[in-house]
Amino acid sequence: MISTSRFLFLVLIFALSCSPKSTVMQVENQDNIPSPLISIGNNAVYGDEFLHMLSKNREFKNSENKISEAEFQENMDLFINYKLKVKEAESLGLDRTEEFAREFEVFKDDLTQPFLIKNSLQEGELMKAYNRMKEIVKASHILLQFPPNASQADSVSVLRMALKLKEEAEKGADFNELAFQHSDDPSAKENRGSLGYFTALQMVSAFEDAAFSMQIGQISDPIITSFGYHIIKLEDRQPNPGEVKVSHILVRSQGNDPVTEERILRRVSEIYTELQKPESSWEEICNLYSEDSGTKNSGGSLPWIGLGSVIPEFERAAFSLQEEGEISPPVKTPFGYHIIRLEDKKPLASYEEMESSIKSRILRDSRSTLIQSQVIAIQKSKYLYVENEIFVDSINSLFSSTARQEIANTIETKNLLDSILFSINKTPNTVKGLLDFIQEDRQVVRTNTQNYFKTWFDKFVEVKLQEAEINDLMTNNEEYRLMIQEYRDGILLFSLMNEQVWQKAIEDSVGQVAFYQENVEKYQWNERVQALIVTMAKEESIPSVRRFLADKKYQPNLVDRLENTFLLNNPLAFTISEGIYEWQQHPILKNADLTKNFQELRLENKTYMVVFGEKVLPGPKKFEETRGKVIQDYQEYLDKKLIASLKEKYVVEINEEEKQKIFDLAVEK
Fold this sequence. Notes:
Blueprint: H1 4-16, E1 25-26, E2 38-40, E3 43-45, H2 47-54, H3 69-91, H4 98-112, H5 117-133, E4 135-144, H6 152-170, H7 175-182, H8 188-191, E5 194-198, H9 205-212, E6 223-225, E7 228-239, E8 243-252, H10 258-275, H11 282-289, E9 305-306, H12 312-320, E10 331-333, E11 336-346, H13 351-364, H14 366-382, E12 386-387, H15 389-401, H16 407-413, E13 420-424, E14 427-430, H17 431-440, H18 452-476, H19 478-507, H20 509-518, E15 524-525, E16 528-536, H21 542-549, H22 558-567, E17 574-581, E18 598-603, E19 606-616, E20 619-620, H23 627-649, E21 652-654, H24 656-666
Parallel strand pairs: 1-21
Antiparallel strand pairs: 2-3, 2-21, 4-5, 4-7, 6-7, 8-9, 8-11, 10-11, 12-13, 13-14, 15-20, 16-17, 16-19, 18-19
Helix pairs in contact: 1-19, 3-19, 3-23, 4-19, 5-13, 5-14, 18-19, 19-23, 20-23
């Protein structure tokens, strides 16, 4: 399968390949119906397609982008040739092959994505996340989890407790003490509910939305997430400091034995004192004493870190360093004691730099489900989705009460196949459509016994709504329609050209020889000469090489003698090329005097030693000497022949009135 960039290059090559004059017939306009620009056989091609290709990278509203009359006509001829080839590809059935269908689907999917509702919602979510990343917020929280297999009464009870704790905090109770006493977050016993500083995409979506919408000191209403109910207190917000690059020296500590801990702390203090000496080397001390085996041999270097990417104690110390080379006092973390040195700082990257990573993170968390829900809601509204809810419930019950392998037979027995589940744009979708959809099993759908029908039904609705959106794009979005048409035609064009021009010319060895013999006058050598060219790389070698070659004439063994004399001991002294050259076109030999066997040339600050041999008179090239050029010319010949045959096969009619409209828009007056 060809890549998009290769395909676009090929389309350009196709379009510029050849443009013989076309015999055309003028077509009269008819009122009240769209008028084609050209007709090829029974195919109508409208002016918007030609204008779309003509106006690429141009804006004809600006006079400096307009083209000349000659350019316009050349492009018109090329466009006709292009559409003739597409017509021929269609007549040969190349648009009905499995290979075409696969390739076109890949292109179409890629081209469609930017136009979909989902893409605009994703872009909005990406921009919202990036804008939030410009800030960091500091918060504490109290988490109240639901009991296992919680009932509705259990959920209400947890909510009441959350509201009670919020009320106590707002009346002045210490929020962190409340977290210590009541939070179900295991870390609350250590951090008393404090989450430190964080930014966007580091908390679940609902928690993040609440935290970033609050004022400093505010306590939130209970926020429900998959973990339970959260009460959040916002403590601070600041501009995002970006990222820091640090190195560290680690001395590990388990913290179980006070005597051992005291000894480790003394050791860390001594390392820190040693680092304060002017003559100390961070790299040497790190190599000697750091117990981080992964970094000790590289000066303790760590990757760039941002807020929320490492444990809070290390993060606070790293971000508190201000000057490059500044070293922190020992910092205690669960891993042991760290001494940290600041290597570099950088601000938050631009949106363009971060877009792909933000998108990847959003599509991995709950936001992706939220975006899809919004897409479905918008599509249902826009494309007149109407669900037969009572019947859907009854089919759901039938699926639940029937063995999976018996569902299709049961539905057919009950004459339910043609019953309507829902309609989109007044087009019904039946039970049979759903069963066929399940049978095809082309979607990745995770089901279990309890949600088998609902999962497949929801996916069926999603796919049908997506089809409706794409159909709407094809009908109402001119840019999308023309782009899809262009890529479809381009794939057909590639297939036709590969079959009848490129590959044919490469494989047809008999045709190549015949073409060569018929056009042998095109494959002629100019006057040539035997020559050896020495390109000097070291100036100090020039005198000795000059002396060696001064009385020589070209001989086949001269290269070996040169190499054995000079390059064995000094392999970089010079480079050598030899052969039979068309001297008048050669960048070096064209400057030489062919009457002298040896000469020295100085060109563009390089010294060349040239030794000439016999001249070779002009004459035809052997087929083997020019096969590559013959194939290239043979391809051009086959292309011209193809176009000529297509103009015999299909009548080309041009609507001069439509052509004039585009001419007036595009051509400089």
